[in-house]
């Protein structure tokens, strides 16, 4: 049995990336597919990977965080499985062979039972001293559940839930969120035999302080998964209550000083000092206790409670009523005349093809996100004998030349008198598009300029967006579930999740 998976690596171009690529190039068995390298650096030159004995396809995001980068990566894949690696891990030389073996075992399970496979991870720590606070934090990855440092998922299952939630803007909780939505807490993700090493990256004095931004992500997790999400995700709650108490004591001390109430100020300052020293002690005790480590722990322990509280309040403001994640569509079906190009009735002349304003740029935005595009068009002029199939092909070729590639151009050549099911509002062309791509109707959108486009979408079970023109009847606009001023605005809606 052949197992097909595509490796997706989101990256910021860190030096560790080249170590990872070298490790993939040195595997005991060759990779079956090109690696999708997702460059998440904002506004940078193209990432040059150089000459490698493996195929690498680089896609750009322009920035947006690891959740968005992984989404763009998996949407560019066409294999049944997607295998995610972080750019700071080093796979064993047998990793790819073991990955294929892990996934082959899962093919014996019904798809609704097992949706993912997690690799094993080791964080090497110093042998000659105790680990620092930063090193201990990295080492906790060894026991973390469902981290995307080495994780494979069935592609169709990722698509069903809209992929990673891009409201998680940093590398924290986005992996656990996806796993919970896929049923990991019900045993639908298993641990495989493959292994990667995760070296400890260099850090500065303020790494632990920046990590407090994760408190906002925890509020988003609670909004999505409910108050019991910590237990379901096997994620400890940490010291949040203690941080709140220390911050409140500090606030009392400041209030006492400002109001000249000495007892209040003294009590608040004492509470803040005791809490801060206790936090520093707990962080210093397990470590190497060098002068530099003690200095760092004292410095950051004084700031961490307030930072944690600030991000907690920020998370409540941003995410307290966050709706479930839907993501963007995987497949967008587009009417041709009046939606992509000017409507020239019964046109068989490529020279008359004129794209509507902003259409090329809007389509390129969808392509950059990995969204699949197809044209679905009625061309009754063929059935009426006004133009030939060859003339229609020439017009379509000109559309592709001007507007970029499409996965397919699906065309109904029949006249209305033929009473076929492929002529919109019949659903057959849309169903054909869904069948050929494997995309579920819930993850597809049909965009057109008249009511038959939207009716076809409804009959096929996909969402529809109407772009009214002077040919669109008022009753068609009134009946449309969603309208937009043009394709540019429709793309804005889709990429914003309102489709």
Descriptive notes:
With 499 residues, this protein is of the alpha/beta class. It has 3 domains: 5-202, Spore Coat Polysaccharide Biosynthesis Protein SpsA, Chain A, CATH 3.90.550.10; 204-323, no CATH class; 331-495, HAD superfamily/HAD-like (Rossmann fold), CATH 3.40.50.1000. 42% of the residues lie in helices and 14% in strands. The chain contains 19 helices and 13 strands. It has helices spanning 16-25, 66-75, 95-106, 133-139, 155-160, 174-181, 207-210, 214-225, 229-233, 240-259, 262-284, 291-319, 359-368, 380-383, 389-403, 428-437, 451-460, 474-479, 487-495; strands spanning 5-11, 35-39, 56-60, 81-85, 90-91, 116-122, 150-154, 189-197, 331-334, 372-378, 408-412, 444-448, 463-466. α10 (240-259) runs antiparallel to α11 (262-284), α10 packs across α12 (291-319) and α11 (262-284) packs across α12. It starts with a strand and ends with a helix.
The quaternary structure here is single chain
Over all CA atoms, what is the radius of gyration?
27 Å
Total discrete domains: 3
Judged by helices, strands and strand pairing, the structural class is alpha/beta
The proportion of strand residues reads: 5-15%
Helix percent band? 40-55%
């Amino acid at each position: 049995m052949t197992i097909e998976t595509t490796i997706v690596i989101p990256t910021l171009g860190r030096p560790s990336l080249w170590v990872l690529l070298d490790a993939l190039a040195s595997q005991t068995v060759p990779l079956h597919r090109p690696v999708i390298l997702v460059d998440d650096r904002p506004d940078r030159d193209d990432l040059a990977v150089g000459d490698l004995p493996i195929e690498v396809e680089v896609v750009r995001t322009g920035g947006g965080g690891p959740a968005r980068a992984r989404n763009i990566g998996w949407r560019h894949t066409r294999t049944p499985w997607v295998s995610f690696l972080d750019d700071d891990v080093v796979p064993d030389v047998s990793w790819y062979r073991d990955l294929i073996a892990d996934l082959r075992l899962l093919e014996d399970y019904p798809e609704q039972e097992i949706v993912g496979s997690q690799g094993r991870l080791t964080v090497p720590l110093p042998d000659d001293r105790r680990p620092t606070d930063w090193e201990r934090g990295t080492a906790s990855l060894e026991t973390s559940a469902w981290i995307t440092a080495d994780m494979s998922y069935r592609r169709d299952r990722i698509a069903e839930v809209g992929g990673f939630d891009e409201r998680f803007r940093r590398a924290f909780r986005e992996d656990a969120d996806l796993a919970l939505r896929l049923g990991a807490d019900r045993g639908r993700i298993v641990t495989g035999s493959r292994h990667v090493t995760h070296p400890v990256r260099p850090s500065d004095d303020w790494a632990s302080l920046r990590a407090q931004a994760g408190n906002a992500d925890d509020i988003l997790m609670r909004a999505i998964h409910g108050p019991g999400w910590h237990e379901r995700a096997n994620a400890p709650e940490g010291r949040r209550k203690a941080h709140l108490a220390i911050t409140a004591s500090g606030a009392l001390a400041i209030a006492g000083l400002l109001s000249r109430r000495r007892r209040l100020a003294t009590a608040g300052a004492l509470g803040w000092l005791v809490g801060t020293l206790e936090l520093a002690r707990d962080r210093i005790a397990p470590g190497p206790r060098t002068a530099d480590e003690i200095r760092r722990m004292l410095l950051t322990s004084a700031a961490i409670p307030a930072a944690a509280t600030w991000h907690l309040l920020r998370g409540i403001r941003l995410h307290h009523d966050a709706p479930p994640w839907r993501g963007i569509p995987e497949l967008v079906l587009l009417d041709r005349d009046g939606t992509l190009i000017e409507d020239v009735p019964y046109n068989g002349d490529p020279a008359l093809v004129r794209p509507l304003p902003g259409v090329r740029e809007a389509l390129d935005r969808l392509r950059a996100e990995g969204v699949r595009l197809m044209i679905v068009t009625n061309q009754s002029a063929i059935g009426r004998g006004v133009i030939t199939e060859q003339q229609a092909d020439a017009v379509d070729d000109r559309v592709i030349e001007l507007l970029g590639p499409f996965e397919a151009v699906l065309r109904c050549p029949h006249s209305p008198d033929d009473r076929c099911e492929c002529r919109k509002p019949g659903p057959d062309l849309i169903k054909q598009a869904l069948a050929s791509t494997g995309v579920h109707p819930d993850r597809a959108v049909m965009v057109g300029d008249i009511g038959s486009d939207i009716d076809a979408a409804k009959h096929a079970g996909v969402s529809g967006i109407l772009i009214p023109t002077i040919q669109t009847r008022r009753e068609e606009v009134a009946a449309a579930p969603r309208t937009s001023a043009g394709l540019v605005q429709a793309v804005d809606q889709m990429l914003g999740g309102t489709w």
